[in-house]
């Protein structure tokens, strides 16, 4: 009996805790059975298909609301951006539009399907499927509607789609799955969806950024899309990392020419200045690019050639028809944008700058805001020292100043603009070169008048020889011009007499100076009278000397004969002969190589017009002439190099005699100090030169690879 009394209270406790009335079943039972999981992929596929139709994806004819124009309001909204009218012509949805859209959505089978899916797999599982499908569809819509389409105010179109289609439809589906959801879409929820859509658009534009920058003129509106995307360090880092990898893969390789790389770099500078005026993003994406350009041998040559090119097509910035290899847009940029036009320097010590803002938090530790943020400033600061740029500028300027041009306004303008950036002292040599050429015209006129060499109208002097030549000279200051390799040859006697007369006139005018003729440099205007045609053109002096030698009665001449007669290298003679063959003035003998004769008459059926490019296809003779000219120039450079090396030979012997044995790096450093103009060769070339001196018995190699004078 006592045991029964003990058990009764325990039974009462259990009954009070686990009362049947306190445990209620769920409102919507989730009847998961073994086959429910297998139908989830089918449910996801149906959900994707039905939402795609409701959101207007892949349907270029889809419009929101009523498909008709309203007076003074505009046209309806098209889900396909490229098919949509301009943004300002899209009308805001009216009550009738909302009603028409709601009626269209009500006819969709998705609402019946939702009830069935909820009964099979439950509301939560449907919501998870819905989230995955909507995320994929947002990416799909952005790619379909906006990929490759760059128009102003694109974000307005995207906001319309998100607000009136995506967010509203998503909210209605959630209400159908859960009756407790508020029937009204909150602004916070809409903003969340808009931010998500903008991030998808930004990711698309980052993937397209390389193509956007390549075709910068037509794709500039896409940068505005990126500005709305790069609003935090994470998105900014994603953009710079992805674009830097694209540059490394698609541009920074030997297959891309320096011209192409610089053209893209210019577009990068312009676009990133719009995207991020502080320059942090530009600094991060171009570090490898700038380092790669510094390693290319012809980078500075292409930049200088572009600055000195003639900006004929200023509207487009493209190369002039006669100079397709020049980066002409640099000349346009230099003429329209001075260094003083840059924005104010936001230095930490500019206490009066009320527009100062701190550097972005994602700036690199060694980031320094450059004052030269324009295209020209970015290019000329590629190199650690401006001496490299100034030296190449002198070489290119010398070639242009030695040409026969009516004026040098372009060169004067470029120097004036560059003096603002480099300072007058750095370009003093260029100023002297330009002054030499301008002064030469005055000196030339005076000397020719005094010596009776002029043929101008009103002068009584008349040439009394049929082969009379009219000589003009440019007097150069030897110390301020770049070194010019001289290929010696014998000029015709008629030219030599004119030179002697010119020297006397110049020495009478400038008594403290003496002329040294550089016969290889310059241009000769020739006129050749053949039996059936006349040839008139401007050629190089050594080419003119070779064709002048054919005016004698000899029918044929060999390269060896011409080389002996003109005291010219055989390579240069052969180059000149091949050049005249390409002009159809000379012809090579069919039975003997290097034997040429004058082609007095063209073969029957040959066009009389001298067409150099042969319809855009250079003939074999023209190509051979160019190759021979290049080979001759190489020989001249090699000869000049040997002459310089002879001078370095004496420098090396004197250094090692006075200071004892030295390793290779110290010898290179000392030569860079003592040689006028600096030592122009690399350590590898110096090592090869020293090896030759060791082989000759002039030097010995001691312990540790140090060089010393042979005892």
Automatic annotation (TrEMBL):
UniProt domain Cullin family profile: residue ranges:
379-581
Coiled-coil region(s): none
Write down the SMART domains for this protein, in alphabetical order. Answer: APC2, CULLIN
UniProt keywords, alphabetically: Cell cycle, Cell division, Mitosis, Ubl conjugation pathway
What family does the entry list?
A: Belongs to the cullin family.
Protein name from the UniProt record: Anaphase-promoting complex subunit 2
Source organism: Exophiala sideris
């Amino acid at each position: 009996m006592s045991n029964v009394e003990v058990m009764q209270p325990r039974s009462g406790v259990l009954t009070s805790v686990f009362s049947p009335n306190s445990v209620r079943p769920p409102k919507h039972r989730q009847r998961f059975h073994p086959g429910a999981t297998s139908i989830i992929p089918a449910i996801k596929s149906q959900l994707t298909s039905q939402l795609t139709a409701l959101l207007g994806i892949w349907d270029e004819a889809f419009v929101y609301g009523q498909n008709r124009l309203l007076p003074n309001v505009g046209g309806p909204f098209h889900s396909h951006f490229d098919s949509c009218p301009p943004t300002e012509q899209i009308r805001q949805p009216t009550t009738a539009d909302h009603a028409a859209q709601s009626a269209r959505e009500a006819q969709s089978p998705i609402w019946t399907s939702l009830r069935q899916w909820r009964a099979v797999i439950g509301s939560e599982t449907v919501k998870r499927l819905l989230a995955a499908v909507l995320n994929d569809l947002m990416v799909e819509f952005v790619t379909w509607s906006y990929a490759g389409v760059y128009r102003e105010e694109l974000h307005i179109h995207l906001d319309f789609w998100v607000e009136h289609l995506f967010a509203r439809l998503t909210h209605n589906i959630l209400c159908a799955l859960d009756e407790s959801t508020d029937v009204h879409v909150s602004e916070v929820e809409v903003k969340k969806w808009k931010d998500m859509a903008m991030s998808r658009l930004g990711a698309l534009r980052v993937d397209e950024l390389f193509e956007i920058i390549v075709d910068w003129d037509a794709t500039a509106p896409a940068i505005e899309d990126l500005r709305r995307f790069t609003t935090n360090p994470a998105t900014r880092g994603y953009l710079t990392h992805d674009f830097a990898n694209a540059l490394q893969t698609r541009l920074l390789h030997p297959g891309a020419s320096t011209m192409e790389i610089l053209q893209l770099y210019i577009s990068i500078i312009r676009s990133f200045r719009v995207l991020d005026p502080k320059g942090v993003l530009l600094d991060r994406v171009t570090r490898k690019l700038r380092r790669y350009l510094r390693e290319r041998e012809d980078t500075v040559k292409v930049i200088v050639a572009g600055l000195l090119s003639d900006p004929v097509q200023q509207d487009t910035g493209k190369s002039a028809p006669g100079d397709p290899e020049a980066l002409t847009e640099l000349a346009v940029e230099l003429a329209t944008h001075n260094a003083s036009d840059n924005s104010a320097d936001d230095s930490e010590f500019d206490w009066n700058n009320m527009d100062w803002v701190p550097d972005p938090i994602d700036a690199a530790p060694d980031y320094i805001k450059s004052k030269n943020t324009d295209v020209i400033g970015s290019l000329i600061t590629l190199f650690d020292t401006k001496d490299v740029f100034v030296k190449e500028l002198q070489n290119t300027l010398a070639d242009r100043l030695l040409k026969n041009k009516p004026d040098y306004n372009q060169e004067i303008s470029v120097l004036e603009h560059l003096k603002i950036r480099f300072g007058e002292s750095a370009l003093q040599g260029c100023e002297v070169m330009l002054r030499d050429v301008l002064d030469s015209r005055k000196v030339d006129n005076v000397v020719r008048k005094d010596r009776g060499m002029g043929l101008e109208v009103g002068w009584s002097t008349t040439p009394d020889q049929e082969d009379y030549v009219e000589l003009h000279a440019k007097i150069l200051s030897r110390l301020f011009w770049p070194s010019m390799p001289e290929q010696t040859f014998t000029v015709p006697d008629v030219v030599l007499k004119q030179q002697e007369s010119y020297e006397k006139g110049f020495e009478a005018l400038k008594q403290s100076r003496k002329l040294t003729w550089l016969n290889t440099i310059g241009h000769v205007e020739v006129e050749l009278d053949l039996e059936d045609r006349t040839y008139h053109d401007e050629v190089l002096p050594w080419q003119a000397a070779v064709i002048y030698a054919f005016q004698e009665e000899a029918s044929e001449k060999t390269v060896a004969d011409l080389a002996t007669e003109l005291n010219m290298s055989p390579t240069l003679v052969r180059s000149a002969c091949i050049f005249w063959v390409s002009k159809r003035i000379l012809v090579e003998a069919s039975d003997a190589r290097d034997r040429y004769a004058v082609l007095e008459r063209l073969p029957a059926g040959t066009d009389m017009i001298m067409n150099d490019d042969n319809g855009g296809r250079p003939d074999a003779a023209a190509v051979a002439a160019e190759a021979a000219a290049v080979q001759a120039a190489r020989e001249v450079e090699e000869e000049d190099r040997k002459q310089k090396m002879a001078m370095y030979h004496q420098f090396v012997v004197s250094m090692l005699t006075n200071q004892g044995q030295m390793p290779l790096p110290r010898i290179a450093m000392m030569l860079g100090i003592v040689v006028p103009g600096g030592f122009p060769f690399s350590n590898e070339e110096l090592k090869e030169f020293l090896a030759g001196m060791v082989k000759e018995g002039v030097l010995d190699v001691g312990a540790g690879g140090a060089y010393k004078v042979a005892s």
